[in-house]
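Exercise 3.2. Students should predict the tertiary structure of the chain below and write it as structure tokens, then compare their answer with the key that follows.

Predict this chain's 3D structure.
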Amino acid sequence: MVIMKDMIHKLLFFFLFIVLLVIVATAYQWVQQMIQPNNHYQKPIGDAVKVFDSSSQYIDKSSMPDRLVWFLWYGE
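Answer key:
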């Protein structure tokens, strides 16, 4: 009888753990969707400036060693 009672307590704990885990995971996904912007790649509004533009005509055409030296020299 004691073994059966102990097993019921363990199953109840396991079931409660799974239910709470599902609730927390769902809440986490809901919060993540609420704070995530809809379109990451849209044009900035106002005074904001888009930092990376792959269609830009000002892409550096230097060789990889030159770029590496520049990076190590300036730290950028």
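Discussion points: The chain has a mean pLDDT of 82. The CA atoms of residues 44 and 50 lie 6 Å apart.
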